Amino acid sequence: MALRGFVRKFKPLEILTEEELEAIHKGTLEVLWTTGVRIEHDRALKLLEKNGCKVDYENKRVKIPPDLVEECLRRAPSSFHAQARDEKYDLMVGGDTLYLAVAPGQNTVDIDTWEPRVPTRKENYDAVTVSDSLSTVHFFSPYTPYFGFEGVPACMAMLESLAARIRNSTKFQCVGFSQNSEIFAIKMAQAVGIEILGTCAWAPPLAVYSDAVESAFRFAEAGLPIRIVTGQVMGGTAPATIAGGVITNNAEVIAGLVLVQLIKPGTRVLVKDFSAAMNMNSGSPGFGGVEIALHNAVSSQIFRRYGVPLDHTTAYPNSKAADYQSSYEKCFRVMTAGMSGANTLLFHGSVHGELTHHPVQAVLDDDMAGMVGRFMEGVEVNHETMATDLIRAVGPVPGHFLSKPHTRKWWRHEQFVPESADRLTYPVWIDSGKKNCLDYARERTENILKTHKVTPLTSSQESNVELVLEEAREYYKKKELMTAEEISTYNKSMKSPNYPYE
Amino acid sequence: MSIEVLERLKKAVLEYDEEEAAKCAREVIEKQVDPVEAMNAMTVAIRQVGDGFGRGEFFLPDLVGAADAMSAATPILEEAIRKSGASRKSLGTVVIGTVYGDIHTIGKTMVATLLSAEGFQVVDLGINVTAEEFVAGIKKNNADILAMSALLTTTAPEQRKVINNLKEEGIRDKIKVIVGGGAITQEFADSIGADGYDPTAPGSVKLARKLIGI
Questions:
Q1: A147: which chain B residues are within 8 Å (Cβ-Cβ)?
Q2: Which of A80, A94, A101, A374 is most buried, judging by how many CB atoms fall within 10 Å of its CB?
Q3: What are the residue ranges spanned by the domains of chain A?
Q4: Is the pLDDT of residue A203 over 70?
């Protein structure tokens, strides 16, 4: 049993010829064997050496032989099941299925002035509720909806965020890692009886630090799935060319995959192509750029050949507001994901890059996601849909199809009806006060918050979540990662009668 | 003749030609041209690129290319300056780095490059720099300014730790501290007791000048 997601019914987009694909593959093997990667983790280095890699301990450099790469790519499952709080939201990641997820933002944003600010605890929990209600949000990614919220010290942000998502959603959850937060994230998941997807994030070019490797060990050893992420910026931390960028990206995530398959063969792995090109004016990643779509589409082609599920670059727009620019930037990315065979894409709710998120944006994105999902279903061609009998019965004008049972049966199947788009006729639009999609999305968001009921945790699950949070708070206090002032603010923020929800 | 080599040195910086810049620097020494003049010529060139970058006419690869060309010639000229007993005016010494736990390099490198272009002596400690390494770097280089970067909300508190270490070492009053990076806000900078914050690389250069009173 798993959530259906969006299923592509036609051939995926292919950017490269077979020869070009082979050249990229060979290039990747060459980089892994001749340049190698830097892994700052001695236990990992020993494990890799034991399995035939050449290891230079002084420089933490590992060269991975091609046959080990091929063997580990075969060991990684081509598709895998992952368990959510409600089994109807379990995922079956891989194949021709695309799952979309909430995309994070560091802060919330005022949707009148588009100025960012730190969200309140209530705003964080409400944003989870909104995405829980949206049918095109198939799961939640790490750090979502926000990187943290008011009153919570930085070291506790990731765990408070996970607790909020576990409490206010029954969908599948992912986590990142920071200062050993994954120890408590795994405990929290086990205490509630769910699976979570962990993260091992590389540091391009061609390096990974000990905390990311530690996270990989912990998730693999706990028998949980893991996402191997790298975050290259072409022209900065990767070659400026897409072909060169794809090769270093491949080398990084495949080196991560090899390590995970050596820690525990058969570990469920989702690989992420989190590439962007550098904005050469500012040095920041050019998240809205079309080159990302090309890079991602090529990666889809390669990982389809490898038989390993792929996550595309999070669909962050460059625009600061929900506007024309943000719409085309997002649409281009989600369409490319659907057409080229991405298995997952973090999509809903990000307003400006990874800096802001808003539930109203998630509601707007629900329509765009629905359109792509519909497109991926393709065109059903059979005797009934071809409708030649009906066409004969109706004949030329004055015949029409509006009154036919065939129309009543099929139109909803064939059309996608957006919830927030303005589809009024001109006079009715004037009468409506010239409402646009943003107005409708705001109304829908308010309505969701009034009506959507999240299945609550059982009381024992709830007390377990709180126990794990308390254990983590004690751990970070002992590590002196919270100042006395932060602890006092944090304690005050937990005094509300509606804790933990506000 | 001396003017010719200085013009070629400027041109090398403007054309991002490291080899030519180093060659010109060696020629400056051979022909006994004033090395301070040569450094000034390069500063004029890199400012031209820096200003063009500020106006959006040049891009980061240009800025970094020019800085690298300048860096290829600088040690050769500086050695000659030291030997001659002359001194080159510097606006001050900046120790810069990305804090421990954070491996983001590009924003920090941009600031370092623009500060060099402005005429600061910049000591770049790199990424993932511990509080202890920052303190040691400051002491060793007798720095006037400490510049710290953090992209992540989870690593931003490390900046506070560094400032606390400066206090413990009794050197907090001897140095100006500026902070930046994606996770940093003015409010956060104030809360950890930094002397300044700016969200942009060109802005941090102005901030550095202001803080040391020039």
A1: 153
A2: A101
A3: 6-15+73-377, 389-451
A4: yes
Record: contact B59-A233, CB cut-off 8 A: no
User: How many separate domains does chain B show?
Assistant: 2
Residues B69 and B130 both lie in one domain: no
If DSSP codes are grouped into helix, strand and coil, which group holds residue A173? Answer: strand
CB contact under 8 A, B101 and A481: no
Model pTM above 0.95: no
Any chain B CB within 8 A of the CB of A155?
yes
A7-63 tens-digit pLDDT = 999 999 999 999 999 999 999 999 999 999 999 999 999 999 999 999 999 999 999
Please compute Rg for chain B using Cα positions.
18
Q: What is the pLDDT of residues A151-200, one digit of tens each?
A: 999 999 999 999 999 999 999 999 999 999 999 999 999 999 999 999 99
- DSSP per-residue letters across A51-99: TT-EEETTTTEEE--HHHHHHHHHHS-SEEEE--SSGGG-EEEETTEEE
Note whether A237 contacts B106, CB cutoff 8 Å: yes
Domain extent for B111: 93-211
A233 reaches B (C-beta below 8 A): yes
Claim to verify: residue B106 and residue B74 sit in the same structural domain: no
Among A282, A284, A316, most B C-beta atoms within 10 A, so best to mutate, is A282
3-state helix, strand, coil in chain B (%, to 5): 60, 10, 30
3-state DSSP assignment of residue A238: strand
For the segment A278-284, the average pLDDT, to the nearest whole number, is 88
Q: Regarding the domain with residue range A6-15+73-377, which homologous superfamily does it belong to in the CATH classification? A: Trimethylamine methyltransferase-like (3.20.20.480)
**pLDDT confidence tier of residue B56, bands split at 50, 70 and 90:** confident
Compare all CA atoms of chain A with the CA of B60 and give the residue at the minimum distance.
Answer: A280
Is B73 in the same domain as B104? no
If asked whether residues B196 and B111 sit together in one domain, one would say yes
B57 to chain A: nearest residue by CA? A281
Q: Do A481 and B106 touch (CB under 8 A)?
A: no
B1 pLDDT higher than 70: no
- Average pLDDT over every residue of A394-401: 96
